[in-house]
């Protein structure tokens, strides 16, 4: 008899880790935060329409050495959703307000997709607050109408129609292997997508998929060249929202940056290949301690 495949849950990923999920007032925005560990602060930022559970497979290993903060970004998850378009400076300001609320002067920023875009903008505008930067399939350097339409259409449809299959398809779009879009993650995201406040503000969240708005926020090579924080770029070769040349261009623009490509990996390298990513990240962080 074949044994059933056991898929780790968020609870089992965090087993043995002392953590808390709390709400932090970040500049007047109630912000959901998972906090674990002690030491230099590492802040994890998810992608468009995402939530802090994107880093469930990373918190345990990182919390052995660092004070981890995985947050629901402005307008996302269970964080507050003020009624204005969520452009990149808004995400930057929310991140800095979160750091201020927690007494964090400087942190390591790990940003996946939209989170990388916001993290990079913060590193440009407030370099003293960013000790190091990780860009995991980061967005924000190109304006590809086909990709933007895919993000806008699949997200809006999953939010406005109460059909879990649409949420499942949206999650599977992120992964090179559909099994990494676990049913638990689908359930978490489906619940978030159908909260009344999330539905009501979906246009604010998707504003960066509008060409005019995106071009106003895009990070150009001359912007990336201003990043002085040590930077690690991680990219999946099967990333559905950005091809490898985008990662190579970031690497070329950011002096001293490191670029690592993951084979058989989509848009969530930290989740799809967690063991490899965790080892890579911890080695990078160890090389670049916070300086005071």
Automatic annotation (TrEMBL):
<dbReference type="GO" id="GO:0016020">
    <property type="term" value="C:membrane"/>
</dbReference>
<dbReference type="InterPro" id="IPR000073">
    <property type="entry name" value="AB_hydrolase_1"/>
</dbReference>
<protein>
    <submittedName>
        <fullName>2-hydroxy-6-oxonona-2,4-dienedioate hydrolase</fullName>
        <ecNumber>3.7.1.14</ecNumber>
    </submittedName>
</protein>
<dbReference type="GO" id="GO:0016787">
    <property type="term" value="F:hydrolase activity"/>
</dbReference>
<dbReference type="InterPro" id="IPR050266">
    <property type="entry name" value="AB_hydrolase_sf"/>
</dbReference>
<dbReference type="Pfam" id="PF00561">
    <property type="entry name" value="Abhydrolase_1"/>
</dbReference>
<dbReference type="InterPro" id="IPR029058">
    <property type="entry name" value="AB_hydrolase_fold"/>
</dbReference>
<keyword id="KW-0378">Hydrolase</keyword>
<feature type="domain" description="AB hydrolase-1">
    <location>
        <begin position="41"/>
        <end position="272"/>
    </location>
</feature>
